[in-house]
Design goal:
This protein has 14 helices and 20 strands. The protein is α/β, with parallel strands linked by helices and about 450 residues long. The strands form four sheets. Strands 7, 8, 9, 10, 11, 14, 15, 16 and 18 form a nine-stranded mixed sheet that branches. Strands 1-6-5-2-4-3 form a six-stranded mixed sheet, sandwiched between helices. A three-stranded mixed sheet has the order 12-13-17. Helix 7 packs antiparallel against helix 10. The longest helix is centred in the first third of the chain and has 18 residues.
């Protein structure tokens, strides 16, 4: 992947971009030559967050740029620069790695089917980890934005395999009826109605002597709702229902490219929840890899069903940490809105440390409870569990409790229920597919396990 908006190359002729806080603007202005002071006054520049102005030299060429941010920690204001400033080469003044990250993320354009509106302004920065994060988030966005016709389970598997080759990882997948032979019956049941066979994607990377971290991502490449079919309006964005898988692949890429001291495994159950004569039905009881049986109360609650098998396999190796990411419930969006993922965990210390890392990088999540009193709502009279409680309230919690049944309490586990989509455009975060919580999780893992020398 080649970024056009960021480069590690030094460029002596790049244009300086002054990132100035509202509070520091008077002092910054005082240091400018009279010509610049007069220009800013004549152009009626307002020192407000988000404001930007080109600063000319005596010949009328762009000599510098000033960009206003609310404070040193409000770095997202720089996210507009790449697609607003004239094409050319720039460098940041009085800025941090976060500002460079915002620049890169703000330059994103999805160009698979439509040409870019323009070339981004290019930022020169000697920050390899920023490039790693930006490239990884671009991967997440591209995967989610791609329509299902070009992102079916086999396509998602192809992208995952490409990533493993790029990062020197090992790749394996179990496809179609082989899922039954190797005891992944829940994944098979949900995906068997699709013309594109269901599969389990399995990636391994790193030194076996390092702590094992296993990432699990929901890979429902399209969710029609199955026989409990969704309405047209609710189906429109269902290409993003593999957003958990996309986010997990982006996080995995960050980890591998940064060479974190972990033994990484990635598990992605990839399916299309389609409708056909062999589709699984409401009322069916299906087996899972763990041996627990699940009564299907609603075929539109398929994500937790496929994750059950993947989580059981993840737990079988007793890793130091399991993290799953999934576009699992509308209930989480009702509770927290579309821009704040919900985090559930069976380990309070792990959850609190993760949330602290998320705050540091402004990629926040919100801790939600695994409220034990709601556990009885996922009991079934004819099976061990139901995938759709009769009680509609607390849906994000009951979904998390369902997943928790497949992870032993002895293994620290985090479940992130996320939107994976920006409904509105903001600086650095365009409308469309999005990485949510990935930078926070990456920071947490980097803080815990550190980097290997490359």
């Amino acid at each position: 992947m080649t970024l056009k908006s960021l480069t590690l190359e030094k460029h002596v002729h790049s244009i300086p971009v002054h990132v100035v806080t509202v509070a520091n603007y008077p002092a910054w202005l005082e240091q400018q030559v009279p010509f610049i002071k007069t220009w800013l006054q004549a152009s009626q520049f307002k020192a407000e967050p988000g404001m930007m102005r080109l600063l000319p030299d005596a010949a009328g060429k762009v000599e510098a740029v000033v960009v206003m941010v609310a404070s040193d920690t409000h770095f997202w204001g720089v996210g507009q620069c790449a697609l607003v400033l004239p094409e050319g080469d720039y460098h940041l003044v009085n800025a941090s790695a976060d500002h460079a990250l915002a620049w890169g993320l703000g330059a994103y354009q999805f160009t698979r089917y439509k040409k870019a509106t323009r070339e981004p302004a290019r930022l020169h920065c000697d920050l390899p980890d920023v490039l790693n994060q930006v490239e990884s988030i671009y991967l997440v966005r591209d995967l989610i934005n791609t329509p299902t016709e070009d992102m079916l389970p086999s396509d998602l598997a192809f992208e995952a395999k490409q990533l493993t080759q790029d990062c020197g990882a090992k790749y394996h997948e179990i496809i179609g009826d082989d899922l039954l032979k190797q005891n992944y019956p829940a994944i098979h049941a949900v995906g068997r109605a699709s013309a594109d066979a269901p599969r389990l994607i399995d990636i391994r990377w790193g030194d076996a002597s390092h702590p094992k971290i296993t990432l699990v991502g929901k890979g429902v490449c399209f969710d029609s709702g199955g026989l409990d079919i969704k309405s047209a309006s609710n189906m429109l964005l269902m290409k993003k229902d593999m957003g958990g898988a996309a986010n997990v692949l982006g996080l995995a890429r960050m980890i591998m490219k940064a060479n974190l001291k972990v033994c990484l495994r990635v598990l992605i159950p990839a399916v299309e929840n389609a409708i056909a004569g062999n589709a699984y039905r409401p009322g069916d009881v299906i087996k899972t890899r763990k041996g627990l049986t699940v009564e299907i109360g609603n075929t539109d609650a398929e994500g937790r069903v496929i994750l059950a098998d993947a989580l059981a396999e993840a737990a079988s190796e007793k890793p130091a940490l399991i993290i799953d990411m999934a576009t699992l419930t509308g209930a989480a969006r009702v509770a927290l809105g579309t821009e704040l993922p919900a985090l559930f965990s069976n380990d309070l210390t792990t959850a609190q440390s993760t949330l602290q890392s998320c705050v540091k990088v402004q990629d926040e999540m919100w801790h939600m409870p695994l409220f034990a009193a709601y556990r009885e709502s996922i009991n079934s009279s004819i099976a061990d569990l139901t995938n759709s409680p009769a009680e509609a309230y607390g849906g994000a919690i009951t979904a998390a409790l369902f997943l928790n049944a497949f992870v032993p309490e002895t293994i620290p586990w985090m479940h992130i229920d996320l939107m994976a989509w920006n409904l509105r455009a903001r600086p650095g975060r365009p409308q469309g597919g999005e990485a949510m919580g990935v930078r926070g999780l990456y920071r947490y893992l980097a803080d815990c396990f550190g980097f290997l020398k490359i």
